[in-house]
Design brief:
single chain; mainly beta; Tumour Suppressor Smad4; six-stranded antiparallel β-sheet; five-stranded mixed β-sheet; 0% helix
């Protein structure tokens, strides 16, 4: 449940519109069929205000998200929420949780550590390979190989 101080929160939505990614960083998100929702779901089986995501703090200064069925005023959605196969009213999201809103409409939540991606300087692996035919002095008009360049490849 608690997230690392350096984390990205990502919600991947799959609905009738296809697959979309949302990077989560705001304190509250409304999710539903209503065009005014922060995260709009395209399906007739989804309520206008199906769910709400709320950002909550951890003790270490980081945050996590809780998903709540319906809106924050207590009005639930028509179909409810299934999180990892269980019907719930609210759930503190964890990495790779699957949230089902209705038939063929779901989201997968990811909590990604920012430092998990290596930041290797681009020139550390900068290798240039040169074809022997590109070197001056190789005329290939004769059968004499003494004027051919050395074709040994050396990586330094």
């Amino acid at each position: 449940m608690p997230s690392e101080p350096h984390q990205n929160h990502l919600l991947i939505i799959e609905d009738n519109k296809g697959r979309r990614e949302f990077t989560l960083d705001s304190p509250v998100y409304s999710i539903g069929r209503d065009p005014k929702c922060d995260i709009r779901l395209v399906s007739q089986f989804v309520s206008r205000r199906h769910a709400t995501l709320v950002q909550l703090p951890n003790d270490d200064g980081s945050f996590y998200y809780r998903i709540v069925d319906g809106n924050l005023k207590g009005k639930p959605s028509a179909n409810g929420l299934l999180i990892n196969g269980r019907k719930v009213q609210a759930h503190d999201l964890e990495d790779e949780d699957k949230v089902v809103f209705g038939p063929q409409v779901y989201a997968i939540y990811y909590s990604l550590k920012r430092d998990a991606i290596s930041t290797v300087p681009p020139d550390e692996f900068d290798i240039t390979l040169i074809s022997p035919n590109m070197v001056d002095g190789d005329d290939d008009d004769d059968d004499d190989d003494s004027d051919e360049p050395d074709t040994d490849l050396r990586i330094i």
